[in-house]
Amino acid sequence: SASLFAQSNVRHGSYAPYSRTMLKICWEEAFHLKHGEDIVLTLAMGTNQQRDMLQEAANRWWEPTMMFFGPDTSAEQDDAIIWGIKEKTNEELRQAWLSRYVKQIRELGITIPDPNLHYDETAKRWEYTTPDWKKLASIVTGHGPASKQRLGFRQLSYDESAWVRQAIMGRRRVV
């Protein structure tokens, strides 16, 4: 769901090829979003084990979802806004996402794993625990908690498929 918010943000941007492509991508993402919402509803109305799975997923994905929008940067410092590629700041998107989903998540009986999350009526904005941007930088540079396992799996897949590359390439050097 967060990706659809981000992608919709560039749908009306100044770079026409990107904007046109985003129309199709957003349409496709909306389909995936509806499918995901159906799965969430099914789990929420399911057995205790299914509800536990849903809570575990919320616990696992809350912080990455909050990170997904990126750090809070002012419009004056965001080149994509300055150039007209996107319309809203990262924080505006995060706030819109929180406004759209927090109530629904809570209505499903899911506990949001952020004790600081609340809506500040005076400021008219959601307050939340600031994501650990150093943790995100570590993950995206290949030093995350699952990086070693993921890279090991890729190496194993590469090694086990060597025979296919050899069959196709024959005696030529296989990369």
Uncertain regions spanning at least 5 consecutive residues? none
CATH homologous superfamily identity of the largest domain = Ferritin, core subunit, four-helix bundle
CATH topology of the largest domain: Ferritin
Distance between the termini: 38 Å
Task: Figure out the total of helices.
Answer: 8
Architecture per CATH nomenclature, i.e. the level-2 architecture of the largest domain = Up-down Bundle
The Cα radius of gyration reads 21 Å
Secondary-structure element order, as H and E?
A: HHHHHEEHHH
User: What is the spatial order of strands in the main beta sheet?
Assistant: 1-2
Mean pLDDT: 91
Task: Summarize the structure in words.
It is a single chain. This protein has two domains: 130 residues, Ferritin (Up-down Bundle), CATH 1.20.1260.10; 31 residues. Helices cover 65% and strands 3% of the residues. Strands 1-2 form a two-stranded antiparallel sheet. Strand 1 and strand 2 form a beta hairpin. Helix 1 packs antiparallel against helix 2.
Summarize the structure.
The chain has 175 residues and is mainly alpha-helical.
Descriptors for this entry?
175 residues, 8 helices, two-stranded antiparallel ribbon, mainly alpha, Ferritin
